[in-house]
User: Fold this.
Amino acid sequence: MAARATEQMGGGDRVPHTAIERGCEEYLEHLAVERGLSRNTLDAYRRDLGAYLVFLRDKGIEEPEAVTRGDVEDFVAAQREAGYASSSINRRLSAVKGMHRFLVREGQTEAHPTSAVRFTRADDRLPDCLSIDQASALLEQPFPPTDAGVRDHAMLEVLYGCGLRASELCGLDVDDLYLDDEFLRVRGKGSKERLAPITGAALRALTEYLADARSALASHARRGATSAVFLNVRGGRISRQSVHTIVERYGRFVGIEGLHPHTLRHSFATHMLAGGADLRVLQEILGHASISTTQIYTHIDRTQLREVYLSAHPRA
Assistant:
């Protein structure tokens, strides 16, 4: 379905033929221009709505007013049968609801088939998290004595030490570094800026990388200098895909299979909270719009406390 969804939306290049396809493109333009959503967020909306349009096309539905509540519920059921997590299904349903609200508001249809469709119950699943020992093993392993190795060490330290998303790490520019003040300026979701503290091992690793390795990598650029902090071997801004690959590789070296950059962010938050960090302060550092998002880590901490209790108490 994912491949067909990409074909359906065409990354914005395919000319929409049906009325609902045209309405979808207008909604995406509204999100970009009126709401100022980031490129990554818009790409996510395009993929999610692409899957929905493929589903409607397979049912022969081309007009917004032809969509019924049953069609939307069938789409949700198809996502569940395909094995998508509740969070992914709810994200797609949210995009679909937003598009239909937009079409009604713009007078393109009077039908609002999603108004009574409920979100699915979220999975009772906590984010993956490294133990402190695992994080230490990952960051204290011997990194290659090369420019790329110094860079990799700095990236891992900053991901874990500052709680950044992979996209935020890739988006860092040299002008975003306030190392004398021990802060980074981070551009998060929706291009919202925040300050993230950087100290200790993360600051030392980043300083070491900036001293020589970054300049050496930058010398390979063919199109002039870039402002990016983290560079690839061709001297350009490193991509999220490369960060994912690098994190997974170094995790595998110390016996952690399938390590994801977001796991380092989750681990940062969990370990900060376990160490006594205030929840509101943690919310600011992570760039969460709502405190309820940050509160997931209190559940992780309670789970760990219970495990320690059960393993340590003689009558547990």
Residues 39-58 form the longest helix (20 residues). The longest strand covers residues 183-187. The two ends are 48 Å apart (CA to CA). The beta strands are 177-178, 183-187, 193-197.
